[in-house]
Write a structure and sequence with these properties.
Blueprint lengths: L2 H5 L3 E5 L2 E6 L4 E6 L2 E7 L3 H13 L4 H8 L3 H20 L10 H7 L9 H24 L20 E6 L5 H10 L2 H9 L4 H11 L13 H8 L7 H12 L4 H14 L7 E10 L8 E4 L4 E13 L4 E8 L4 H12 L8 E4 L6 H9 L3 E5 L5 H5 L8 E5 L2 E14 L2 E2 L2 E2 L3 E12 L4 E7 L9 H9 L8 H8 L10 E3 L4 E3 L1 H26 L11 H25 L3 E3 L10 E3 L2 H25 L8 H9 L3 E5 L3 E6 L5 H16 L9 E6 L6
Parallel strand pairs: 6-10, 10-11, 23-24
Antiparallel strand pairs: 1-2, 2-3, 3-4, 5-22, 6-8, 7-8, 8-9, 11-17, 12-13, 13-16, 14-15, 16-17, 18-21, 19-20, 22-23
Length: about 700
């Protein structure tokens, strides 16, 4: 500023070199730029007042400062600008100047059709509402959300609505996840559309997943104010209030729709790969007292009460879809369900990779008929026969995960026969591609099956890489999830009567026990018979004749038991039995919501590690560096236009340089929350003096 601004105490700066001198007694205002007068206005003239304000804004003045100087409402200035934008100056002044030879009344009559009618403030309000509704409709179309389920919030109800100066937070690093999810997945828009003000519980779940907090009860160890500021909810609620928030969300029964919208958005926007998809089941144990169906625990190789979580990942390890099924679950049907749900959205044909659980001629024929492409392990492989194969047969070779493999391709035919109404149907068969793989490093051989080329012509090396990229030494996706995130946590167990009350018929088990015992005794009689010699004297009741009679009788009894067993139903309803408790089914609404957040955090982690790799070339320590950044302490500041998080710098120069570049990358995404605030993350020293 020049000396004019120093000497005149009535001048108030409004930004961009502009200043206003306002005399409220005389109702006059003067606009200065760099000390020079550029406009004067008499505020008794309403038209002159509006034009003066609009010129000040268009020249670069800050609307808030103009409103403070002129003692008017900030919304009024916004309305003036909108009226001029949509209706021109004529709409702003509600009339026209008097042309020569015409009265003002006559002139207004001539221009009546050109002028808008009605209250401009109401018209602007309707236009703003229409604009917001168009934005919401675009958002609903983006996630395929029905209009009746849209609960988008107003600006005041959004997160980070409180403005504050720098405040310390031990959880500042979690802001990296929030930026990635808000920008890449439109995460906040999605959960607010479905749950409105209840979106806060998802931010709490995000904190739990990002910092490996294993249950809601463990949130008692979290600094509530520091965590609340970071999550944009001012203060973390108490445990009882968090549970109330959780139940309020869970009782809406929207988890399946939410998950569907989230995974649909991922696929449509290329956030997950759509070539090879890997599906596997994982036990969700249940330790309660209620009677539930049993799943299978691979580690202990025994049944365990609980459920099966079928998780589908792409070849990078990002979660594509998941579903929780009661008891052991059905992977065969799950593969068909995935293919039916997402094939139309995928730009290329999906190839499903799974383990031996789906193995079987009838299932392979069914997949081939439905044009489902797949790759899986072969079952019942003769290891001794494979070792005898000549090394020259393994004509192809590849290196995968720093290990050398050789393989060759052949064919394997599967045939099965079905019977209906005691009539045999014609044989159905399918010829699958068969790969024999030789691991050079450990000198082990095994076999792999793939769909026929008529279903999908997959390159032989891709088939081998697909099966090797998910199992064995490369099976790390779910191990990392379990180690780093509370993947098994099930908030809020709620049980109700299961529709599946069938169990294996206990009478069949009893008959099997009897048949086994009888066959054991029959084997003994045959051994005794082989030692006895036929009597040459013609003597009656010889040992040989007695053993033959016993064997004949025992074989008849065994045949009778087998007939009885054959006529028994394989499964029965437990409600028809005495002293049997009915099965309970676990309500997975809360678990689905928590797994939605866990999957979101996991997928964001995968993308951010890829970004960090550009700034840090030590692959062995890359993941460790990422967690060092996301678990950093720092400070947070919220203004009217920005949310700024500053992280404490790491000590090692190379790691600190990668940290700074990574934060610049996140800031450069220009992520914004729905209320318009920009999200910024930086690295630096403590800003609090």
């Amino acid at each position: 500023m020049n000396r004019l601004f120093e000497d005149n105490s009535n001048l108030t700066s409004i930004g961009n070199g502009l200043a206003i001198e306002y005399n409220h007694i005389k109702a006059t205002a003067i606009l200065y730029r760099n000390g020079h007068v550029i406009k004067k206005a008499d505020f008794d003239d309403k038209t002159a007042k509006k034009i003066f304000i609009i010129d000040a804004v268009e020249l670069g003045g800050t609307q808030t400062k103009i409103a403070q100087v002129l003692k008017i409402c900030r919304q009024s200035i916004h309305n003036y600008m909108e009226i001029k934008k949509h209706f021109g100056l004529e709409g702003l002044i509600h009339g026209y100047g008097v042309e020569q030879g015409k009265s003002q009344r006559k002139q207004r009559q001539d221009h009546r059709e050109k002028r808008h009618s009605g209250d401009t403030a109401k018209i602007l309000m309707e236009m703003r509402q229409e604009k917001r509704e168009q934005a919401r409709q675009t958002q609903r179309d983006l996630f395929d959300i029905p209009e009746q389920e849209d609960k988008t919030l107003d600006v005041k109800e959004q997160c980070y609505s409180e403005n504050h100066d720098w405040q310390p937070s031990r959880y500042a690093g979690v802001f990296c996840y929030i930026i990635a999810l808000v920008h890449n997945w439109r995460w906040l828009d999605l959960i607010q559309c479905y749950f409105g003000v209840d979106f806060r519980i998802f931010f709490i779940f995000l904190l739990m997943s990002a910092r490996n907090i294993r249950s809601i009860e463990q949130l008692k160890n979290v600094r509530k104010r520091e965590a609340g500021l970071l999550l944009g909810i001012v203060r973390l609620p108490s445990r009882n209030k968090i549970w109330l928030m959780f139940y309020r969300v869970a009782f809406q029964k929207l988890s399946l729709k939410l998950i569907r919208s989230f995974f649909l958005y991922q696929i449509r926007h290329g956030l997950v790969r759509v070539w090879f998809w890997f599906t596997d089941g994982h036990l969700l144990p249940y330790e309660g007292k209620q009677k539930v169906h049993y799943s299978y625990k691979t580690q202990s190789q025994r049944p365990h009460p609980g459920q099966t979580n079928f998780v589908t990942c792409d070849h990078t390890g990002s979660v594509v879809d998941f579903e929780i099924q009661e008891g052991k679950g059905n992977l065969y049907e799950r593969i068909k369900s995935i293919n039916e749900s997402w094939s139309a959205e995928a730009p290329v044909k999906i190839v499903h990779v799974f383990d031996r659980e789906v193995y079987g001629a009838q299932r392979f024929v069914d997949y081939t008929d439905k044009k489902i492409a797949f790759v899986c392990w072969d079952k019942n492989v003769d290891v001794k026969a494979l070792k005898k194969l000549s090394d020259d047969l393994f004509e192809h070779q590849l290196t995968f995960n720093d290990k050398k493999y050789r393989y060759f391709e052949s064919e394997k035919k599967f045939t099965f026969t079905t019977t209906t109404d005691d009539k045999k149907q014609p044989n159905r068969s399918v010829v699958l591609r068969h790969f024999t793989i030789w691991n050079i490093s450990c000198n082990r051989r095994t076999c792999v099956l793939a769909c026929p080329k008529s279903v999908q012509d997959i390159d032989a090396s891709d088939c081998v890489k697909a099966i090797l990229s998910r199992w064995g030494a490369s099976e790390n996706t779910f191990k990392h999830v379990l180690n780093r995130y509370p993947f098994h946590y099930h908030p809020g167990f709620r049980l109700h009567k299961s529709p599946n009350q069938e169990i294996a018929n206990p009478e069949i088990k009893e008959k099997d026990k009897q048949i086994k015992s009888q066959k054991k005794w029959l084997a003994k009689l045959y051994r005794d018979l082989s030692r006895a010699e036929a009597s040459q004297s013609g003597r009656q009741n010889s040992a040989f004749d007695r053993l033959k009679n016993e064997i004949t009788t025992l074989e008849a009894q065994i045949k009778s038991l087998q007939e009885l067993k054959k006529n028994l139903p394989e499964k029965i309803d437990v409600t028809t039995l005495e002293n049997y408790k009915s099965f309970k089914k676990i309500d997975n609404e809360g678990k689905n919501l928590f797994d939605f957040v866990t999957s979101s955090v996991w997928n964001a982690r995968k993308i951010m590690i890829d970004w960090l790799h550009d700034y840090y070339n030590c692959d062995n320590y890359l993941v460790d560096l990422f967690y060092a950044i996301t678990e950093s302490h720092g400070w947070i500041k919220s203004t009217k236009s920005e949310i700024i998080v500053r992280l404490e710098p790491l000590e090692q120069p190379k790691r600190r340089a990668a940290q700074e570049l990574f934060c610049r990358k996140l800031t450069g995404l220009y992520a914004k929350i729905p209320n318009g605030k920009r999200m910024i993350i930086e690295v630096g020293d403590c800003p609090i003096q």
